[in-house]
From TrEMBL:
This is thioredoxin-dependent peroxiredoxin. Residues 2-149 form the Thioredoxin domain. Keywords: Antioxidant, Disulfide bond, Oxidoreductase, Peroxidase, Redox-active center. InterPro entries: AhpC/TSA, Peroxiredoxin_AhpC-typ, Peroxiredoxin_BCP/PrxQ, Thioredoxin-like_sf, Thioredoxin_domain. GO terms for molecular function: thioredoxin peroxidase activity. Pfam families: AhpC-TSA (PF00578).
Length: 149
């Protein structure tokens, strides 16, 4: 994983509508970048729906959420619509952003990883789940975020 305390790598990726979103668009607020293996897979769906159900916890902390996987823009659009996800999903089809954040797994898929970036673009928190078949439950994720902020 990327080291804490360093400047987060700049990136621009298409969202579920094809609009380009850059990390620099979020300067001035905290951003939680969530790398995940794939849309509509059992664990990723449970993870992102858990975060959807508790999205106000991110809002209360002034945190924007960006989900990133290697899936296509169209896959993200269908996934976000199907599960009514209230946060932005970004398509990293060439996996360059996952590589830049050192969040690529050994099989070439995104790890299930979390990077909290502060208002100035510095990484406050960076870690990945040890097993790809589990995810960080909301209460544990928030505890880590609160400890890092």
């Amino acid at each position: 994983m990327i080291a804490e305390g360093v400047k987060a790598p700049a990136f621009s990726l298409p969202d579920a509508s094809g609009r380009m979103i850059s990390l620099s668009d979020c300067i001035g607020q905290k951003v939680l970048v969530i790398f995940y293996p794939g849309d509509d897979t059992p664990v990723c769906t449970a993870q992102l729906c858990d975060y959807r159900n508790n999205v106000l916890e991110f809002t209360r902390r002034g945190i924007a959420v960006l989900g990133i996987s290697g899936d296509s823009v169209e896959s993200h659009r269908l996934f976000a619509e199907k599960h009514e996800l209230p946060f932005t999903l970004l398509s990293d089809s060439d996996k360059r952003v996952a590589k830049a954040f050192d969040a690529l797994g050994f099989l070439g898929m995104s790890q299930r990883a979390y990077v909290l970036v502060d208002e100035t673009g510095v990484v406050l928190l960076a870690y990945s789940d040890f097993l790809p078949v589990t995810y960080q439950p909301m209460k544990d994720l928030l505890a880590r975020i609160d400890a890092a902020s």
